[in-house]
Design goal:
Strand order of the largest sheet: 3-2-1-4-5-8-9-10-11
Order of helices and strands: EHEEHEHEEEHEHHEEEHHH
Number of strands: 11
CATH topology: UDP-N-acetylmuramoyl-L-alanine:D-glutamate ligase
Bound molecules: 3-hydroxy-5-(hydroxymethyl)-2-methylisonicotinaldehyde
CATH class: Alpha Beta
Largest sheet: 9 strands, mixed
Shape: globular
Amino acid sequence: MKRIVTIQDISCVGKCSLTVALPIISAMGVEASIIPTAVLSTHTMFKNFTCKDLTDQIKPITAHWKSEGIDFGAIYTGYLGSFEQIDLMKELFDEFRTEDTIVFVDPAMADNGKLYAAFDEAFAKHMATLCAKADIIVPNITEAAYMTGMEYKTVYDEAYVKELLQKLAALGAKISILTGVSFEEGKTGVMGYDRMKDEYFYYSHERLNVSYHGTGDVFSSTCIGAMMNGLNWKEAVQVAADYTKECIRVTLEDPAEPWYGVNFEQAIPYLLKQLGKM
Ligand code: PXL
């Protein structure tokens, strides 16, 4: 059985980060080990959330794992709360990376042209230095613009997206995957770039005209989970994009539609069918 370690916060309510990654990765038949970087009462889109930082636990946890000889097929980082946590992730990559490990960085920090409440531009630039050490990065267009210094656009063409991908690739990751890329009305998708092969890949599907929190985490967890199931990055991107869309679709159908996250739980049977597991 493959094992992923994912490092991000626990938002106790809100369906994002670890409360999404754990169930999705587990449902895909992959062991999910975690390092919770902070415990929040909710994600940061709620007002008055509490937050207990757990940075001081990261080193003792990894030191114990090292002494036990624990290893991972993939290391997946999501929302991180500080410069220090980013630097600790670099050390963790160096300590646990082998030839076969996939280091997957989701620089979760911004969307719709804006940084999340806790972050500023300097943080985005520092996150770029973590992306430099990854095999695969999965920013959305906002995060990519902040990390590369390119202008954020809502109306753009293929040349803009390819330039963003080139600048992301220049940071250092092998594969850069840009989410939320839409070239035509009613459709959205994902464009990836493989730096070694100088090859682009685009996958699009129907766009549901609504936006929920946590969908980036659904996408990333599914993508790395699919790769641990033996899919290559292009196949994994398609499974992850389709599942994320299905999560949004079932959420829209829910009369008690939660504004703070998607009903990813209800779409797990769909995901397992896509993976040929049901
Ligand atoms: O990836 C989304 C996310 C994760 N963790 C926390 C957040 C958010 C988005 O707002 O606030 C704490």
